[in-house]
Amino acid sequence: MPNALRRLTGSLRFQLAFWNAGVLVVLVAGLLALLYLGMSVLLQRELDEVLQEDCRELELMVASVPSLSDLEGEMRRKAISHEKQRWFAQIWRGGILLAAAGELPAGAESGPADHDDGQWELKGFRLVQSTEGNLRLRVGSSLDFLADDLASVQRLFLGGGLAVAVISPLVGWLLAARAMGPVADMLATARRLEPALLAERLPVRGIGDELDRLAVTINAMLDRLGAYNERQRDFVANAAHELRSPLAAVRALLEVTLNKDRPVEEYRELLHDLLEQVESLASLVNSLLLLAEGDAGRLHRPGVTGRLDRVLERAVEMFEPVAEQRGIVLVMVPPSAVLVSGESSRLRQVLSNLLDNALKFTPPGGRVECSLRLDDPSNPAWVELEVADTGPGIPQENLERVFERFHRNDPAHQPMQPKSGTGLGLSICRAIIRPLGGSIRMENRPVGGIRVVIRLPCARKAEDFARNPA
Q1: 3-class SS at 104?
Q2: pLDDT tier at 334 (50, 70, 90 boundaries)?
């Protein structure tokens, strides 16, 4: 029972109903209190106005009635007609009470000199006094009937307040249930979702309120998760396919080696072929591990920077013998000093992949150019690294797909490629560049060939780089 009560009181529906009812009760109580005070002041003011009119009427009676006995008779008749209000009147002259009518309150026998003209209260009575010649006129009325009226209003207000206090939680509970209905639908849908089955989407009512926006946002997240899961499934399937080929080759070589006794040279040749397959397998596994680290956000150590110009120089130096062997001109525009975030080893891996691709797809006699461009040489904020070749190019519709994992272009567009790769090189480049706040794109050159452009934010001014090793 305590757990059920805790779940109930901790639910959003209960909190909405509680706070709505609480706020409504407080507002109604405050409003009723203000109305009660206003009515009290208003009735008091109306009584004062009535007594002032009675005092003026008494002044007219003094001026028009010739004898004091007739005047007192008129006063008594008026007192009888206002018996409920316990109305009374007095006429004074020089401290002597000349005439009086009605029920006088205790202390009303005191002379008018004890009070100035105006209004005041005396033992539950409201009194008004004025002067007419040498006469002082005093009229008054009990406040009991006002208290009775205010008590009736108070009982009415208390009854209405109690009704609001009882009804508002019930209405609040029903309204909260209606408001939380879409949330319940979302929860039911969310409970049916599974990591491998993200086809369902949260209902969107089309009203455009906060719940609709929440549902749209969560649905967009589910779309991204579904696309990610799809990519991961494809990635695992492709990785298994890619691993199967070298493993099958290793197994075949081992079976051939163990099939019969062979001369030492033949064993050496088979072991050499086996080593090539193991190296290919290790390269593929390392690439897969690197992409997994990229997905987990562990490719770069925070705060580490590298000299991109020196990384480019050393990468070009490393590939110059390969370019010369293939009859390709490898050119580097002398770069300006530029420091970027990221480890030099990762940046070198990106450049190695780009140069390897460029040299692989460029025919003999072709040209590969590398360059760095700063947006502002005096105070650079961005740097662009470009690797351009004179190869066959890539169909326009495949320019973005080349960054997908395990993607390979149509061999008909790659006649000079001596050996098919794993299709992970450009995926690795993007996985390294994006966490650094950069971008990588590929485009066909108007004169033929491919241009790969990497854009990275600079870390510091060029003159501060001299002490930073590559």
Answers
A1: coil
A2: confident
* DSSP 8-state secondary structure symbol assigned to residue 363: P
Q: Are residues 386 and 309 in the same domain?
A: yes
Q: What is the dihedral of CA 295, 298, 300, 304, to 10 degrees?
A: 150
Count of beta carbons in the 10 Å neighbourhood of residue 202: 22
Residue 173 lies in a domain: no
Is 138 found in the same domain as 261? no
Q: What is the DSSP letter of 337?
A: P
CA atoms of 124 and 189, how far apart (whole Å) = 70
Residue linked to tokens 């150590």:
301
d(Cα 329, Cα 326) in Å, to the nearest integer? Answer: 9
Residue whose entry in the numeric block shows the structure tokens 């006094």: 129
- Please tell me whether the overall predicted TM-score, pTM, comes out greater than 0.85 for this model: no
Count CA within 13 A, CB hemisphere, residue 378. Answer: 0
Statement to judge: residues 290 and 248 lie in one domain = yes
Phi-psi domain of 17 (left: phi exceeds 0; alpha: psi -120 through 50; beta: other): alpha
Residue 295 CB neighbours (<10 A):
14
215 lies in a domain?
Answer: yes
Task: Give the other-Cβ count within 10 Å of 337's Cβ.
Answer: 18
CA distance 356 to 411: 17
Q: 144 and 125 in one domain?
A: yes
Apex 382 CA angle, 318 and 458, nearest 5: 70
- Report the pLDDT value the prediction gives residue 462, as an integer from 0 to 100: 41
Residues 6+ apart with CB under 8 A from 169: 17, 18, 21
Question: Is residue 135 packed enough to be buried (19+ CB in 10 Å), middle (13-18) or exposed (0-12)?
Answer: middle
pLDDT in tens, 252-306: 878 777 787 778 787 788 788 878 778 777 777 777 777 777 777 777 777 788 8
Q: In this structure, is residue 159 part of a structural domain? A: no
Here the tokens at position 442 are: 């590929």
Q: Which domain holds residue 362?
A: 305-464
∠ at Cα 70 (69, 74), nearest 5°? 115
Which pair of tokens denotes residue 385?
């690294």
Quick one: pLDDT band at residue 83, thresholds 50, 70, 90?
Answer: confident
Dihedral angle sign, alpha carbons of residues 271, 274, 276, 278: negative
Domain count, the chain: 3
Give the DSSP letter of residue 434.
G
Report the helix count and the strand count for the chain, using DSSP H and E: 10, 12
Whole-number Å distance between alpha carbons of 55 and 128: 7
Give 56: exposed, middle or buried? Use CB within 10 Å, 0-12, 13-18, 19+: middle
User: How many angstroms separate the CA atoms of 335 and 312, rounded?
Assistant: 8
Q: What percent of the chain has pLDDT over 90?
A: 13
